[in-house]
Design goal:
Number of helices: 14
Radius of gyration: 30 Å
Number of strands: 17
Distance between the termini: 81 Å
Number of domains: 3
Helix content: 40-55%
Structural class: alpha+beta
Shape: flat
Largest sheet: 5 strands, mixed
Bound molecules: zinc ion
Strand content: 5-15%
Strand order of the largest sheet: 2-1-3-4-5
Length: 461
């Protein structure tokens, strides 16, 4: 006996894999869901679409996550998919999602297999999960094999061919002379020992531009100089491996992916010579890089001091680094201009009028210091095993909440007692500016409205 779904509200979910099976194309899947719902009298609210590759991770599945949220909040009556495998990539994920759906009282329908969630017992759900897993694995393997075969045949499988090339209708690289002459020039200049920035400048001055029409930058120049494809053969990117006795990961030498050659733009000899010059360059260690706001920025969420995390282009707080908090941190590219603007604005204001805010609450700052001291004490206790992780975490959390309250309600507070040009002339020298700001005891954070606020300066040292 078929169930009656008439008048129920459904959400469709569609996902493609990169293989080109027309039955699985997005428009076909969407149409199939629409037809099915129409035939059953189901009100189809919308069809969520994810155009993902066949990876296994949840990332880039925004609509899948949206679907899960709709299920969690019981915002729909039915979920409709074309293939059971669209409902989860692994067996675990599939089973969990079906169970969640059932628990929320929502029906699950997979059209092709004729699966209906409420009619399946636990064993059937598990069995279907096994076949979902197998199907997804096969699909992924087929996709990987396809790419590898295409590469082995000398085809360029990535979407955009390197600067200097175009793809012909068979996906082979062919020369594009207007760009190829620039690639040769870049290599010649590199052999003449110009660095990336100099090369970019020369190219821009001669009126050359990137494929996008934008000006050249040193980053693009190095990318071209390091690309072996210009020697006339496609390589697999070398695997990254850990060097013995070191945490540094180095890339192994790339190996040819094919025996088929495409037109070379530079010789292997040139490539090797240029890359020898590049690798001989002294590398600037990232650890000595000084950031504008290192040690003077405070976490808007927990009040802890923040330092720059170069790898992720963020300032992160010490609590996060220790794994005590889940603070998200601040993007370097967002917060630095904000603080510079703030400084510039203050500088301007300061030239006209200088008024220290009346409502400075010194007691707040004292309270904050006390809380910080209490937190340090807790840290010590925890480290010395005098308290359990649970107690520690809840107490630290309580303190963090209090610090946050104080931080957020702290008024914008003028402590500019220096003359107008003091910071202005340093604005382009982040290292010197950082040093000066630290010396002046400046502390910055953000309020609830994400505006820059200054925390009270205590004993500049
Ligand atoms: Zn924090």
């Amino acid at each position: 006996m078929r169930m009656n779904f008439s008048g129920k509200i459904a959400e469709g979910y569609v996902r493609t894999s990169s293989e080109a099976n027309p039955a699985e194309s997005i428009p076909n899947q969407v149409r199939q869901i629409q037809d099915y719902c129409a035939s059953q009298g189901i009100i189809l609210q919308e069809v969520l679409v994810d155009e993902a590759e066949t990876g296994v991770l949840s990332a880039n599945r925004d609509n899948y996550l949206k679907l899960k949220s709709l299920i969690k909040h019981k915002a729909i009556d039915i979920v409709v998919v074309n293939f059971a495998s669209r409902f989860g990539r692994s067996m675990d994920e599939w089973i969990v999602t079906v169970e969640e759906t059932k628990k929320a009282g929502i029906e699950f329908i997979s059209i092709t297999e004729g699966l209906i969630g409420s009619e399946m017992n636990a064993m059937q759900v598990a069995m279907a999960g096994v076949s979902v897993q197998l199907e997804n694995e096969n699909r992924r393997r087929a996709c990987d094999d396809g790419l590898r075969n295409a590469k082995a045949a000398g085809k360029f499988v990535n979407s955009t061919p390197p600067f200097g090339y175009r793809k012909d209708e068979n996906k082979y690289l062919v020369l594009y002379e207007p760009e190829a002459i620039q690639v040769r020039l870049i290599n010649e200049l590199a052999l003449a020992r110009h660095n990336g920035a100099e090369i970019a400048k020369i190219l821009n001055e001669r009126g050359f531009r990137k494929a996008s029409g934008a000006e050249w930058h040193s980053g693009h120049i190095y990318k071209i100089l390091r690309n072996r494809t210009y020697c006339g053969i496609i390589h697999h990117l070398g695997e990254r491996v850990k060097e013995p006795f070191s945490n540094e990961r180095i890339r192994c030498t790339p190996i040819p992916a094919t025996t088929r050659r495409h037109p070379a733009i530079i010789s292997e000899d040139t490539f090797e010579k240029v890359n020898l010059l590049l690798s001989a360059k002294p590398k600037i260690s990232k650890s000595i890089k000084i950031h504008l706001l290192s040690r003077i920025l405070y976490c808007p969420e927990c009040g802890a001091r923040m330092i720059a995390d170069d790898r992720n282009n963020r300032y992160v707080c010490n609590n996060h680094r220790k794994g005590i908090s889940q603070c998200v941190g601040l993007k370097i590219g967002d917060i630095e201009p904000k603080v510079l603007d703030y400084l510039a604005q203050k500088q301007k204001d300061n030239c006209h009028s200088f008024d220290v805010a009346d409502d400075v609450n010194v007691s707040e700052d004292k309270e904050r210091d006390e809380l910080l001291a209490a937190r340090r004490k807790l840290n010590m206790k925890f480290v010395n095993l005098q308290m359990s992780a649970e107690v520690y975490q809840s107490e630290v959390h309580a303190i963090n909440v209090k610090i946050q309250e104080i931080t957020l309600c702290q008024k914008k507070y003028d402590i500019f007692n220096t003359d107008c040009n003091d910071y202005q002339h340093l604005i382009n020298d982040h290292k010197a500016l950082n040093k000066k700001l630290r010396k002046d005891g400046m502390k910055f954070s953000l309020n609830k409205d994400k505006e820059v606020i200054q925390l009270l300066a205590v004993n500049p040292t």
